[in-house]
Amino acid sequence: MPRRETPTSTAAPFLLLLHLLLLSPPTNVHAVQPPTTSPIKTVVVLVMENRSFDHMLGWMKKLNPEINGADGSQWNPLNTSDPESSRLYFRDQAHYVDPDPGHSFQAIREQIFGSNDSSNKDPPPMNGFAQQALSMDPSANMSRDVMNGFHPDSVAVYKALVSEFAVFDRWFASVPASTQPNRLYVHSGTSHGATSNIPALLVKGYPQRTIFENIDGAGLSWGIYYQNIPATLFYRNLRKLKYVSRFRPYDLEFKSHARQGKLPNYTVVEQRYTDLKTAPANDDHPSHDVYHGQMFVKEVYETLRASPQWNETMLVITYDEHGGFYDHVATPVRGVPSPDGIVGPEPFNFTFDRLGVRVPTIVVSPWINKGTGK
Ligand SMILES: *[C@@H]1O[C@H](CO)[C@@H](O)[C@H](O)[C@H]1NC(C)=O
Ligand SMILES: *[C@@H]1O[C@H](CO)[C@@H](O)[C@H](O)[C@H]1NC(C)=O
Ligand SMILES: *[C@@H]1O[C@H](CO)[C@@H](O)[C@H](O)[C@H]1NC(C)=O
Ligand SMILES: *[C@@H]1O[C@H](CO)[C@@H](O)[C@H](O)[C@H]1NC(C)=O
Ligand SMILES: *[C@@H]1O[C@H](CO)[C@@H](O)[C@H](O)[C@H]1NC(C)=O
Ligand SMILES: *[C@@H]1O[C@H](CO)[C@@H](O)[C@H](O)[C@H]1NC(C)=O
Ligand SMILES: CC(=O)N[C@H]1CO[C@H](CO)[C@@H](O)[C@@H]1O
């Protein structure tokens, strides 16, 4: 069957981009190869938590009509099997959300297909978000919350970055599942079969090869600036003693390394995932206040901007998955290649042949033309 489109995932374009930027320059001076034209020497990656594209950036279409965002005409029925069901239209009134909308494998299946039957709908109708949110807990009724996005003025940092830099509006979560499978994909291109967060396996560590080892192998540098717990330690290979010094406390070292021009070629910045007494979580995950996430992104951006490395830096701000929030762009559900042939656990036996819901991605660099809509 011919493929209708090139599947996009958080990992695939990412690894490709990195390969082009960092891993391709010729190392053998005698070889006749075209010199690399990329001015980028430092790629900084920040993976925020649990928000869809439309929820965070959909209304940025007002600023730039080229962005495939929301305009208020999108809606979900409260009951997908009732043609008379009342409709919930997508709004721009999002605020602090508590509790957390569903984003398990089952929940996402119902959100994108409108039912638990994923067999026959391509493209999927993206009409089950309101219904799924209501069914999770009718007394909490999160239907309105998931059918809502931020007004650009409520996410002022993104508003500024979207006007100045590039927004990707066809970037989907790698797996239609929860946080950790998607986070595993980001730096290794696979979740090694995981379709949910399984604490025992996370503690044990996942065994796949990661981009960090590839970067090492190419003689380049990497570093992880973490706050409370580095999620990258869920890769077992990164627990090797030789890598201990690659893990740096964000608060103590990110700004000073940036100021001194010492950020490694592949720099990962991890946010605070849990509230501390003195510092609230800043990962954007509900119920964590988006304001703190915005302040964190601003701090990372301003730190890089003031660094002597700025002229050779690219910052990628992306999200692990959509967190249960509505998105109107149909998730690619056919022809997605499995990274390694590993089949997920029962009862779904998922073959990694479809992607998750669209997530926000913004790429920031002095080499990007202002306001690039895609
Ligand atoms: C890796 O980073 C170092 C230090 O910034 C830089 O000198 C070097 O050119 C970078 N390598 C590549 C391939 O960008
Ligand atoms: C949804 O609509 C169908 C068809 O009218 C009905 O059978 C079903 O009970 C409704 N579900 C809920 C949760 O109201
Ligand atoms: C889909 O399955 C889940 C259990 O996996 C169930 O809670 C939910 O009600 C089902 N949804 C529909 C629309 O049948
Ligand atoms: C849930 O919320 C929606 C939107 O506010 C509302 O239309 C609907 O009637 C509510 N349903 C229940 C069962 O509370
Ligand atoms: C940025 O890099 C380009 C090309 O590498 C160079 O021409 C330019 O002078 C640099 N600008 C600054 C401010 O360093
Ligand atoms: C999933 O795989 C198991 C083990 O191979 C098999 O017993 C089961 O029937 C499969 N389930 C589905 C829904 O295909
Ligand atoms: C950091 C954080 O709280 N992230 C949440 C995102 O969603 C997953 C479920 O996939 C939660 O387990 C995480 O806690």
Automatic annotation (TrEMBL):
Keywords of the record, alphabetical order, are:
Hydrolase, Signal
Would the keyword Hydrolase be found if you checked this record's keyword annotation? yes
Q: Which InterPro entries match?
A: Alkaline_phosphatase_core_sf, Phosphoesterase
Q: What does the record give under GO molecular function?
A: hydrolase activity, acting on ester bonds
Does the record bear Signal in its keywords?
A: yes
Q: Where are the transmembrane segments?
A: none
| Signal peptide (residue range) | 1-31
The lineage's top-level taxon is Eukaryota
What Gene Ontology terms for biological process does this UniProt record contain?
phospholipid catabolic process
Pfam short name (any one): Phosphoesterase
Protein's name according to its UniProt entry:
Uncharacterized protein
